[in-house]
Amino acid sequence: MSVVQRIALILPLFLWVALVGGMPSFDGVAFWSSDTGSLVPGMGALEALGPQNNYENGYFVPRFLAVDAERGAPGNVTITSTKNPPMFYLHNSQVWLYHNATTILPVNVRNSTLSSQLPLQVVVGKQREGVRGGTWRWQGTQLIYEQGSATNQGIYYACQDTNDLMGLFLFLKP
Q: Is residue 87 a contact partner of residue 97, using CB atoms and an 8 Å limit?
């Protein structure tokens, strides 16, 4: 094999190495990923655990928090079984619903009954609204809502609201 033929065989290898070495990368990342979990740390589906019947046809079916509205739109937070649950995350004591890179909606607590003794409803809105002064936090695997010294102790209730729509509610106890 002549020198020219050897160069012709090795040249594409050198070009490939130069091309791969010139690809953009970030510290510790040498590939692109569509995994949004890496964009927002701690983001994930919120699974509802409780005494509800999680079995269908003898198989366990997990239940997740979802929004009773079109994907990415405001609405009542509900519990449903879905194969593609929405993604939520907690940041600065506020729960957020991640729809896509341009649509992130706040999860709000509102007094839908306008009474201090009745439960508060969990909803997703276009902006932060509803009951003021409340904060969200994790305690182990429980999502806790607090307002001053009162807390829901991580307990939520799924039932119909005053418009006969399903919703997620909580009571605050000192």
A: yes
